[in-house]
Amino acid sequence: MADNPFENYGLLQRISDHNIPTVLANPIDAMQHISFPEAVAQRIMRENPELGPRVDRGLLDMAINFAGGYDWAAREGISPQVAKEMARAYQYKGYADRPEDSIQDYYENVAGIEAFTGERVPAGKLIDMAIEYARNKAGE
């Protein structure tokens, strides 16, 4: 099992990890990113129905998490460190009910963040990268 990014994760750290100043400095990107996971999910499902429905730990879920991390990291003014902090704050919301899923969702976001190398790839390429990541993680 991966290290638990939520171990000893207190309220003050969570508030800090939300990086409100970054969101306020990048409001358009923040708004666009909010709708990104659903938009990419719809496209992946339409173009790759063999991945099945979005369920915890499923291929589609892993691909969406990867793509979401990449999308946020690829936006102007978002450093990899800030993206990781914000991913941790975001994924913590499900930790009480689904701890292992929240941990893995966070690491899938981080993989997407780390896949961004400075220049955003086209959406189709990102989807291919996300699906490849999910299949590799699932051992397919």
Q: Can you walk me through this structure?
A:
- This protein is mainly α and 140 residues long.
- The protein has one domain (15-138).
- Helix content is 67%, strand content 0%.
- Helix 4 (59-73) crosses helix 6, helix 4 (59-73) crosses helix 7 (123-138) and helix 5 runs antiparallel to helix 6.
- It is globular.
- The chain starts with 10 loop residues before the first helix and ends with a helix.
- The mean pLDDT is 95.
- Secondary-structure-based class equals mainly alpha
What is the first-to-last residue Cα distance? 19 Å
Apparent shape: globular
Helices, by number, come to 7
The strand count comes to 0
Q: What gyration radius follows from the Cα positions, in whole Å?
A: 14 Å
The residue fraction in helices comes out at 55-70%
Q: What share of the residues does DSSP label as strand, in percent?
A: under 5%
Low-confidence residue ranges: none
Mean pLDDT: 95
| Overall domain count | 1
Report the order of strands and helices: HHHHHHH
Q: How would you sum up the major sheet?
A: none
